[in-house]
Amino acid sequence: MRLDAAVDDLERWWSGTQVDSQGKYKIPDYQNGHAYLTSHRVCYVAAEEPRKFSVGIDLKEIDRAEYQKGKNDKSRSATASPAVSQQTSLLSVHPSSPRPQSVGPQQSSSPKPVNATWICPICSFSNPVPSNFDPATATAATHLPPCLACGIKPPFTTVLKAAISAATSRDPPLPNTATLPTENDNTHKNGSLSGPSGLAGSVSCPRCTFVNHPSLMECEICGAPLKVGGPSIQGDDTSRVDSPAPFFAQSRITNSEVTDSIKLSFREGGEKTFHERLKGALIQRKWLLQNAPPVPPPSQAGALPSGPAIAEPQPATPRATAVGIAGLEQRGLETRMNNQLVIGNAFEDLEALMASAKQIVALAETLARESGMTTNGGASAETNAVLSESAAALGMVTTKDMLSSGSENLYLSELSRDLAEYLTDDRKGVLQREGGIMSLIDLWAVFNRSRNGVELISPSDFQRAAELWEKLKLPVRLRRFKSGLLVVQRYDWSDEKTVRQLQEWMEELRCVPPDEAVPWDWTAFGRAVTAQEAAQRFKWSVGVAAEELEMAEDRGILCREEGIEGLRFWSNYLVA
Amino acid sequence: MVSTTAATAATTSFVFPSTYNFPPFFTPQPNSTTRHSQLQKWSSLIQSWCRHHRTYRLSLVDAVDSPLFHNTALRKRLALAEARAVVDWMTKKEEEGGGGQRAEWIEAGGNTAPKIVAWIWWRRPEEWADVLVDWVDATGQKGVVLTVFELLQGEATVSQEFHGMDNDVMMKSLNVLVKRGKASVFGNEGEEGVKFF
Q1: Same domain, B22 and B101
Q2: Both A26 and A81 in a single domain?
Q3: What is the count of structural domains for chain A?
Q4: Is this structure's pTM higher than 0.80?
Q5: Of A12, A171, B44, B128, which residue is most buried, by most CB within 10 angstroms?
Q6: Which residue in chain A has the smallest CA separation from B21?
Q7: Where does the sequence pass through the membrane (chain B) (predicted)?
Q8: Across the interface, do A573 and B37 touch by the CB < 8 Å criterion?
């Protein structure tokens, strides 16, 4: 999913200061760019030097998103945008950190209920809800560990209710008050212990209200985990200090505190859509599909820690390792299961494509049937034209996937950048191989082929994207020859350069005797060249070569000779 | 009908300019600057060719097969239509972007089809008139009556360029002098006499 919200500022809130606009800092170099929202993360891409100043944050790290209508009017940009400087606050726990670090214990510190318990309906023992149990994704099929006391498997609804109630009871302290999502954890950890109990040096159990000694981890009476210095919290905190946000260090502010929120300010609108889509994405939780553990086989009982099962394969699980052939078979089975999961994920998006493809095929069939009807009455050129038009229209439909009409411009400008990058990529050397210039149609074909038949670009989109090169100051240019042929060339390519090359060539021909005896004075006139020869020499395509020769003719450098051998070009000796 | 090419045989062979051996010379050039230059070269070639062969009327139909328009070495020729375009350009005044009226289409006479035969003015009638006046002055024949036949075929004019000139061209030139008041022409057709003042 992409969004066309153009964000111009990326601002952040520091956790050390309250949300009182006192501690608001703008981050240098992150003041002008685009915000992107994908199903997995929010990204900021700077307009200038995007490679240096771009950041992203995983959606799964985001606790919630808020929308503030421009309370601070900061219209330092020249845009006439009527004070819609708007801030979407993403109250987040972890800004995106290098991927490998965000597995394991760090995960468990994310907003999942740590201290949720469910009461066994049989023996009323309070069991902990498994840490990998997520109320949002769990279904009746999810494997549930049996009661620790009586060994009876609990009904699914019991566990679900317990998890949800724990989650909701955890939520209320969050909103706009000065306390931030993890605030309660932090304050306790800091030792001030001004917690809900209010009793210095002791902690009351959240379940049975028994006042425990502060050094206890669990309630003496009911065994419920106490908040003080819980292992998970500890781990959470250290991990945060260890993995600061990548852009943190780039600001001038010392990197000593934890970021709790990120603010995106929009200068040119789009903030509402962005906020809505962000909320939608947060609800959909698509990232779970990637990280979700596969439906655990019975052998991998509930002790499995949360986290990506794919990335964190079997060795971590406390399952007894099978040996011998049985072990091999088991491993093979596991690999198959994993493969299945990966393939399943990969094809999920394809299914959406297939769904629309079906419609298109149906549409095409209808058209074919209609044209079949008309051909019975004698095919006319008119109906053929109409048919080809609608075929072109269909081509458009398939490429404008997932893009609303409003984001057309973004699509084109991104495509334009994409193309420029593709062309100038030294590894592929597309443009170099073609002698620095190639026709737009050739490029279109090559580019679409390089996409392996997925997300093909329609010709008109392609041309419009190419027309944007100049505006976007990209290192390639679209050029129209006199005949209307559109070609792609480097921005520093000029006609003068071509002419110089051609002249050098002509001079060369005057020095080299032709292969066969010629009836004219070759030392004076040299030899004629065809477009094919020029194409071969300069590695151009023949179409381009013909155009370049005609360009030189237009400038009076060359002149033509039409004969039975075809069109040939000579150095211009007609002009004295 | 007078023969289109004067009977004077070329004593020495005509020397073609170097561009005559330049193959693109025979292809109409699309570039206007190049084209203009090409036409000028053709114009001067045709004029010097006609002067060398004492040709006053050029029949394009005959000429396209002559060495003038047909380069056998290169196996290149100027097509009739293209030759016509060149002569057409020659007929126009220089102010009109033409070749300075160095040719004139002959519409009347035996040619019903237009733009087949043209006068090639390697000397325009005005220029011929000047040549005649110079000759008359040099030989002191002012006030003397001469027949046109004498001018063209007489022994006294053998050394002159206008000797053996096309009768029509001579008449045109004399008419120029009449208009200038430097001569008067009298007598019947075919037996004209001329008196220079």
Answers
A1: yes
A2: yes
A3: 3
A4: no
A5: A12
A6: A520
A7: none
A8: no
B-chain residue closest to A557, CA distance: B34
Q: Is A100's Cβ below 8 Å from some Cβ in B? A: no
Let me know if residue B71 belongs to a domain.
yes
Query: What is the chain A residue with the closest CA to B77?
Result: A563
* Domain containing residue B111: CATH number: 1.10.10.570
Chain-chain contact of B18 with A559 (C-beta, under 8 angstroms): no
**Which CATH number characterizes residue B184's domain?**
1.10.10.10
A576 touches chain B (CB under 8 A): yes
Tell if the CB–CB gap between B33 and A575 is shorter than 8 Å. yes
Q: Does residue A297 sit within a domain?
A: no
Q: Of B120, B139, B172, which residue sits at a domain end? A: B120
**Closest B-chain CA to A556:** B34
Instruction: Note the pLDDT tens digit of each residue in B104-157.
Output: 888 765 555 677 888 888 888 888 888 888 888 888 888 888 888 888 888 878
Chain B touched by A347 (CB under 8 Å): no
Residues of A in contact with B74 (CB under 8 A): 519-520
Residues of B with CB under 8 A from a CB of A: 18-19, 21-27, 29-31, 33-34, 37-38, 41, 73-76
CB-CB under 8 Å, B73 with A559:
no
Tell me the C-alpha to C-alpha distance, in Å, between residue B189 and each of A72, A336, B168: 108, 116, 11
Edge-first strand listing for the sheet containing B103-105: B57-59, B117-120, B103-105
Residue with tokens 């008041």: B181
Number of Cβ within a 10 Å radius of residue A176: 9
User: Rounded to an integer, what distance in angstroms lies between the CA atom of residue A525 and that of residue A466?
Assistant: 40
**Structural domain that includes position B142:** 125-196
Cβ pair B34:A572 closer than 8 A: yes
A484 touches chain B (CB under 8 A): no
**What digits encode the pLDDT tens for the residues A454-493?**
778 888 888 888 888 888 888 888 888 888 888 888 887 7
Q: Rounded to an integer, what distance in angstroms lies between the CA atom of residue A417 and that of residue A472?
A: 8
**A411 and A468 within one domain:** yes
**Inter-CA distances, B127 with A89, B105, B133, B141, B148, Å:** 96, 19, 10, 19, 18
A536 vs A145: which has the higher pLDDT: A536
Last residue of a domain, one of B94, B120, B146: B120
Domain boundary among A474, A490, A506: A490
Whether residue A22 is found in the same domain as residue A88: yes
Whether residue A502 sits in one domain with residue A458: no
| Nearest CA distance, A82 vs chain B (angstrom) | 56
In chain A, which residues have their Cβ closer than 8 Å to the Cβ of B18?
521, 524
Backbone Cα Rg of chain A: 34
pLDDT (tens place) for every residue of chain B, 197 residues total: 333 343 344 456 888 888 888 889 999 999 888 999 999 999 999 999 998 988 888 888 888 888 889 988 888 888 888 888 888 898 888 877 777 888 888 876 555 567 788 888 888 888 888 888 888 888 888 888 888 888 888 887 888 888 888 888 888 888 888 888 888 888 777 778 888 87
What are the DSSP E strand ranges found in A424-537? Answer: 437-439, 476-480, 486-490
CB contact (8 A) between residue A556 and residue B31? yes
Cβ distance A574 to B34 less than 8 Å, yes or no, reads yes
Q: For residue A563, what is the domain's CATH number?
A: 1.10.10.10
Q: Which of residues 511 through 540 in chain A touch B, CB cutoff 8 A? A: 519-521, 524-525, 528
- Examine the domain organization and report whether B116 and B22 are in the same domain: yes
Q: Count up the domains in chain B and report the number.
A: 2
Coil/strand/helix, residue A266: strand
| B3 occurs within a structural domain | no
Polymer length of chain A: 576
Pair (B109, B162) in one structural domain: no
Minimum CA–CA partner of B17 in chain A: A574
The reply to whether A304 falls in a domain is no
Residue A35 within any structural domain of the chain: yes
A315 found inside a domain: no
The tokens describing A328, both together, are 């091999």
Taking CB atoms and an 8 Å cut-off, how many pairs form between chains A and B?
62
B169: nearest Cα among B89, B68, B50:
B50
Do B47 and B116 lie in a common domain? yes
